[in-house]
């Protein structure tokens, strides 16, 4: 059913694993829809009380697929407003999900991969985890609700610093900033995450679903409007020279030169 993710259910915990290890779990075009559909599928299952999202191998997700961006530039398709809005429905589904969602952040989570972690209710990290709002490094403002979700989580000033600099935040700092829920030792990420997930899975699931519904209705009700505006700004930015220069520089392993 799914081509870029793996889905399994065990002990009332549903796990979604981004399965593009050879690409550092960069998100293919279909990955956004597959994660959205998997979240909705697990939300509807009575034998699932909690959802864990992670990446296969060493890293959570490298974000958008730069090679795909290169193709879009060469064909002059660029990023479409409809496509960006569609991608945003992934994190919207996570926020509307009635089950608690835990991001088990192995290694690096950057760009849209970081957005997936932001869409979760909880983020479990290790000292080796790195959270990066990397959009600015390729001349883009951000998609998949990243600006909105990050600002809600840590406030405008700290979010702006992460967005405008693209600097990585390590596991210990993520805890101090309020980006992450729990810091665990390297080598114990899976054990600690699933212990927490199973505990949540055996809580009153209907009451938790009502809690999440109240949170969405009163704290995220304008999220869909944000996705429309975000999609417009991303589409416009993808047609400018900074995006093309940065994508080419990334592939050629050079430092990009941006328009001043």
- Kindly state the number of beta strands: 9
Average of pLDDT: 96
Major sheet description: 6 strands, mixed
Enumerate the spans where pLDDT stays under 50 for 5 or more consecutive residues.
none
* Helix content estimate: 40-55%
The SS-based structural class is alpha/beta
Number of helices: 11
Q: What is the C-alpha radius of gyration, as a whole number of Å?
A: 18 Å
C-alpha termini separation: 46 Å
Description:
There is one protein chain. This protein is an alpha/beta fold and 260 residues long. The protein is built from eleven helices and nine strands. A hairpin with a 2-residue loop joins strand 1 and strand 2. The longest helix is centred in the N-terminal third of the chain and has 16 residues. It is globular and about 55 Å long. The chain starts with a strand and ends in a 9-residue tail after the last helix. 43% of the residues are buried.
